[in-house]
Structure formats: C-alpha cells, structure tokens
Amino acid sequence: MAKTEFDEDSGFIARHFKDGVYRPVYSFYFSDSFRNRRRRVSRWVAASVAAIALTATAVVVSYQLRTDNNANEPAVVSLPGGAEVDRSNEIIRLEFKDAPLSEVVDGVEDAYGVTLANVPEGDLRLTLSYEGNAKDFIETVNELLGTDIRIEK
Amino acid sequence: MTAKEFDKEYRRLLLPLGMYALRIIGSVGDSEDVVQTVFLKTWDRIRAGFEPDNLKAYLYMAVRNASLRHLSAKADELTDDIEDAAEVTEEDVDTSERDARLWKAVEELPERCRMIFLLCKRDGLSYKDVASELSISEKTVENQMTKAMKSLRKAYGIASDSNVQINIFFLPFL
Known about the structure:
heterodimer, A: alpha+beta, two-stranded antiparallel ribbon, about 45% helix, about 15% strand, B: mainly alpha, 2 domains, elongated
C-alpha cells in the first residue's frame, strides 16, 4: 500500500522524536526590564558585593557538583520572565546588578513562577549572579541579607 | 519590537523553526542549537536597532541560512540540494508548522501510548513484537496505536476514520 503524506510525516517525526527538546531556555523579556533601571549606589551594596559574589560562586559550584548529568544543559537564562508556569524546580540563571530587593523579588517570582512572602522593606540591594532552583536561591538570599523570605507557592 | 513581544514570538516559533531546521539538518541536537542561536543573535540585532518587517519570515530565512552553513561546515563539499535552496517557501513554513503539531501531539501522548507508538513507527516493530517486549496483549498494542494515530491525525488536520452516519429522510410527495 502506498504511503500517504501523513504516513511519511508521522514517520519522520517518530524517527527523530526526543522528549524535552525545542523548549525555551532563554527569556528575552526579563533581561531588558532590569537594564534600563536607574542605579543608586549605596554603601550597603559596596560592602555586600564581595561577600555575595564569593558565596554565590561557592553555591553554584557545589550545586553543579551535586547535579546529575543531564542531556540538556540547564536553562541559561538572563533574568527570566513569564510567570504562567511553576518552574520552581528548574535550574535557571539569574543576574542582578545593584537591584533593589523588591525588584529581585519580582524577578524571582516571574522566573520561577512562585510567590514570595515576608519580604522586608528597606534599602537592601543585590548584585548577584546565580544558577539554581527557587528554594536554593531564596535560602542564599536569606543567608546573605539576614532575611526570612519564604516561598508561598 | 519590545523584549516581551520578542519573547512571546520566541516561545511561539521555537518548535516550528526547530522542525524546519530538523528537515534540513537531520539531527535534533544540531537543529536545536542552530535555532536557539538564531534567536539569540536576532535579539542582539534587534537591540542594536534592527527592525525586521516580518519577524517570522526573517527567522525562517535566518534558520535556513544557519542550517545550510551548519551542513556545509560538516560536509566536504556542498551538494546540489543545498545550492538550489534559494528561498523559504510557504510550503516550507506549512510543513514545519504541521511537523510542530505532530511533534507536540507525540509529546502529549500518555507515556505508555507514546512508547508503543515509537516502538512501532520508529523502530518498525510489529504489534506482536511490541506486545512481547512490553508483556502486554497484541490487542492492547493495537488499541494504543489507534489512540496514538487518532491524536496525530487530529494534530495533522485530517479527520480520523469514523462511522459515517446516513440520515435518510422520507420526504412526502409534494
């Protein structure tokens, strides 16, 4: 029996099918929303930068050592966005430059699709490059800033 | 074009463009790399001031060119097929979108159904062999394949086989 176009096309897809590919690994939206913010330098940032950078590097290195080999690279995202899906367990890279804590919170909520609670007021700012899941990220921020931010969902 | 708009197009066109590149390159991993890179570079250009009239058309062209460059980098010499591919045709776009629907349909199959479908269609096993491999009945394999093919036909855009209902109306003579 002659093959139909559907048979050919479905056969093509079946031969090449692989789960978990052709998925978005970047977020172009969020990388821009932080770029144009005005920056105010504070003494707190100057004092925190070295400590944050060193600790974040240590966390990323230890996390990567613990992570099993995955065929796909972790999502390499610069300030991810899009809060429709719960991605709290996904590995996402976040970068903040002299960002107020409120903006960091917005960024994390959008990136991981979570809601954060118990965010303190005040002039706390972060410069941080981090790669990991939501829970680890919040734990790191809490350790660095002495806060008690929680993931509500 | 704003970052949000571009991001939305990225999520919408990633799979169809991936299918388009896959048809050219023939490798899932390589085609995915090519398409992701095209999006990154396109965004860099847009941020630098580039304003494409038709982003979708631009991306298809960019993916075609990147895929062909990828092939020529791997091949010892360009083939006639590569040389003759001058433009992205509407048929290319339609095919890629249809492939994307099929791909998504396979992704969305229940795990067992997908496994049976791939054993039959990808690996060419008979229903009997699949049944033996999975320790299930041949009838189960047949049912799962019917289910899978129905989903794929629906995604493809063709009606599945169904009983034709004939209504006969007895009209009174006027």
